[in-house]
Structure of SRPBCC domain-containing protein:
Amino acid sequence: MEHQSNQPSAVTFSRTFDAPRELVFQMWTAPEHFASWWGPQGFSLQVAKMEVQPGGTFLGSQSSPDGNHVMWGKFVYQEVAAPAKLVFVQSFSDEHGHTIRAPFSANWPLEIRNEITLEEKEGKTTMTLQGGPINASAEEQAAYDGMAPMLQQGLDGTFDQLAAYLDSQK
C-alpha cells in the first residue's frame, strides 16, 4: 500500500491499562520503573540519565538478549504535564547523547516526536501515543512509512511489557 499524502504520517497507538493514571505516568517518568518495561521484548534497558522536565533529557542503552548488540537512545522532553501528557523527541544516540543514525537504516528519521496522553476512567487509564518524524527528508519519511507496521507491532510488545509490569506493582 503506497502512502499518498502531503502530510507526514504518524503512528497512533492506544492501550487501556488496569491502573490509575498517576501510576501509568510514573512508569514513563521514574527511571526504576521505565527501565523495567521500555524497549523491544527480551532487551534490557540501562538508564544513564533521566531528567523529566521541559528541555530535560533521557539517555539510555538497550542490550540485546545475547548482550552482543547495544543501542543508545535519547529523549528530549518538550512538555511534561503530570499526570496527563508527555511530549518528547526521540533519537538514536551515542553514549554521550549525540544524535546518530539508526543502526538498522541509513534513511531512518533522526528525530521522532512522540506525544503521550493519559485519560483515566473508572480506575483504568487509556494511553494514546502519537508519533512521527520531524524535520524528515522525503527518503526518511518513506523509510518511516515503510516501517510503520513493524513499529506498531513493536509498540504492542513493549506495551504488553508495561501491562505485565503494572500488574506486578499491585
About this structure: Residues 93 and 99 are 4 Å apart (CA to CA). The domain at 11-168 is CATH 3.30.530.20 (Alpha-D-Glucose-1,6-Bisphosphate; Chain A, domain 4). Helices lie at 21-29, 31-34, 138-168.
